[in-house]
Amino acid sequence: xxxxxxxxxxxxxxxxxxxxxxxxxxxxxxxxxxxxxxxxxxxxxxxxxxxxxxxxxxxxxxxxxxxxxxxxxxxxxxxxxxxxxxxxxxxxxxxxxxxxxxxxxxxxxxxxxxxxxxxxxxxxxxxxxxxxxxxxxxxxxxxxxxxxxxxxxxxxxxxxxxxxxxxxxxxxxxxxxxxxxxxxxxxxxxxxxxxxxxxxxxxxxxxxxxxxxxxxxxxxxxxxxxxxxxxxxxxxxxxxxxxxxxxxxxxxxxxxxxxxxxxxxxxxxxxxxxxxxxxxxxxxxxxxxxxxxxxxxxxxxxxxxxxxxxxxxxxxxxxxxxxxxxxxxxxxxxxxxxxxxxxxxxxxxxxxxxxxxxxxxxxxxxxxxxxxxxxxxxxxxxxxxxxxxxxxxxxxxxxxxxxxxxxxxxxxxxxxxxxxxxxxxxxxxxxxxxxxxxxxxxxxxxxxxxxxxxxxxxxxxxxxxxxxxxxxxxxxxxxxxxxxxxxxxxxxxxxxxxxxxxxxxxxxxxxxxxxxxxxx
Length: 520
Ligand SMILES: Cc1cc2nc3c(=O)[nH]c(=O)nc-3n(C[C@H](O)[C@H](O)[C@H](O)COP(=O)(O)OP(=O)(O)OC[C@H]3O[C@@H](n4cnc5c(N)ncnc54)[C@H](O)[C@@H]3O)c2cc1C
Description:
By secondary structure, the chain is α+β, with helices and mostly antiparallel strands. The chain is 32% helix and 22% strand. Helix 9 runs antiparallel to helix 10, helix 9 (316-328) crosses helix 11 and helix 12 (391-404) runs antiparallel to helix 13 (445-464). It is globular, with a radius of gyration of 23 Å. The relative contact order is 0.12. It binds flavin-adenine dinucleotide.
């Protein structure tokens, strides 16, 4: 707290005086305050020459790829709706756009805008209401999955039947509900549509400062635009989620070949399994490359079966070891991962808890250190879709492309998605197979240029097989690729202007597409 106050003073001259005095009470974070990434040691090679001043603004970045940095003018971290309104006033007085950041896991610059006022939602994390009869819960948009899970467990303690969330992302937990709505996320459900299906309604503070209720019956157009709308249609203050009965699930694991995967998924769905994915092998020198994988699915079992106190699970150290091996000895990483997962076949989990995962923050620094890497690196994700029956052919084409163009795939999975018939910028235009690729990217100019080329090639392979891509992870797609996969994109940008003619809500992602579609 003291740091934050001192930092507010340090930034005061940049603010219009009157607003600064009013904002002293607003939980606003300024340079060096409030965010871990501004406090962390600078990576090697980024030291400024002696006597040089850092550029103005606060440096922000996404947590995983760390390739979407921006310098924002100020960061406001409101605790309530009033605080959000004050951040709006600040932006208007300073004539700056607003960007909205939750857990900062999107990687295409969606939460940031150069020189804008960034609203960090993470302190807006209260549960506002829980209709235990109907299974509806209203939460502030900055709440993250661990907090929501904690609330659901404690508020329903001792009840015979309980509610749970239906789906969340895999691979990370500290993501906000606002971020989930805005990217219209999905989990590893075998027969689920994206997150919009789990949303009953939300309240959005629009560019005029009005709090608007949005649902399928109230402001339905805004409902379909703001979900999957990447923060461009207003500030989502709260969301009411549709919960599902909490179930006990058994994990069933086997090794499979990609050729038999579509049928195996179908079989599992027919047999009543609810969740599942396929983690494929990534050693390009192996016969198993992008072919063999660990197929883990989860089916409901009787509530009578107790979940044992101690089950096998991987700890932080194990994950780090696996991630490190996935860089240095991919076959061994796959062997160990497969052996571990096979040994857990038959273990029981609650339907919400089994979706939680472990993400070691900044794990790549340790990997770079162990490898004495000459350049910093991270993984950058992409998610490519193809028609389900063309999965084998899609993976064969990726195998060829990846070997030819030396893609360094560190890990990846195959999942399923049902068609999204509700959101405007729907990425799940059909029931697809979703293939996730985590590519190793070196943070120098040749590394990032190569990554852009590689991601574009993967999109083309997806398009060839009747598919598309997820716009959350980067903004490398070419205009022809965006047009093909999102023919509604230009209309999406036009509707943004209809709801926000002054372009109060912006992001570097938005500016990129504005330039792409409306070059001046
Ligand atoms: C390791 C990792 C694993 C992932 N796994 C999955 C996965 O399994 N499935 C999947 O679908 N995605 C996955 N993602 C992507 C992730 O779900 C999205 O990036 C999601 O938006 C992140 O939420 P966040 O809280 O970090 O939001 P941010 O990245 O901070 O923001 C995302 C977007 O939401 C907007 N936004 C946030 N809060 C609000 C608000 N209150 N009002 C209006 N707009 C708002 C922002 O402006 C931005 O446009 C993964 C990402 C990583 C890095």
